[in-house]
Amino acid sequence: MFRKLLLIIIILVLAVSIPGCMQAKEETLDNSIEVDESVDYSTTVAEETKLMVVDDLGREVVLDKVPERIISLSPSHTEILFAIGLGDKVVGVTIFDDYPEEVLEIEKVSDLNGNNIERIIDLEPDLILYYGSVNDIDNKRLDEEGIIYASFMPESIDGVIKTIEKIGQLTGKNEEAKNLIDNIASKKEEIVNRVEGSIPKRVFYEVWHEPLMAAGHNSLMDELIRLANGENIAKDSAENYPLYDLDELVEENPQVYLTSADFPEKTAESVLKRPGYENIDAIINGNVYVLDSNFVSRPGPRIVQALELVAKAIHPEIFSR
Questions:
Q1: 97, part of any domain
Q2: Does residue 92 belong to any structural domain of this protein?
Q3: What is the pTM of this model?
Q4: pLDDT tens-digit profile of 82-123?
């Protein structure tokens, strides 16, 4: 009697999960079917509900349930979590997190000295989100505590989209992630279409000034410049963020000079006054733009706003119409 009852329960579960098959072929239950009592059927069903992705370190990340306590160790990941409706699940962030405003009230567990791994463990997170590699000390402690972590490090708009998709999958927010992705893709297409057909301009993006460092090949800014119909003069560099010689900058002679407001003293006026810059077209014509670093340096939901800022700087004549 017990075997028959268990068999009926299992078949009812399968009927819910694959109704199409049941509708296609109705069959009379065969009472002679033997149930293998060595199989834990409850575990088998639970396996189907696991949340799994492969992160950017190539690791298979698996959660048994939707996470209720999340720590984000990257401002861009934090913005993704809030954008897909998980702000109330975030229990720890970095000192660099400042958007949206609600994040200012969340405990800071990472600063310039690194991650406070003991405090992170004390907060009992279900999931930790990293950007880039995880140091060996953190890795060991998290493994010892059985805490799940995932790392994503997008360097393109498509990379941001994939990161949003995977974070949505890990947190049970697939629909919210899809809506966000659709908005990003739509806005991107709108901007790209708007600059299409314009004359490309030579662009330099300054990552740092002493020593001078550029956004080079395969960097996020390199893609934004290209999508905005600009020509990144550092696009042929072997590195993503190469050092750039002043003589080389003058020789390449960018028409537009971009950088970000990474410290208060950096302004368009201060760049215009730099010694040795006076013969660069961008300086002569006043085409120097200091962009909001929270937009252009964070590969998160606001990446299309960054694209729009870059496009407006390269082609102000189009966006002033």
A1: yes
A2: yes
A3: 0.82
A4: 999 999 999 999 999 999 999 999 999 999 999 999 999 999
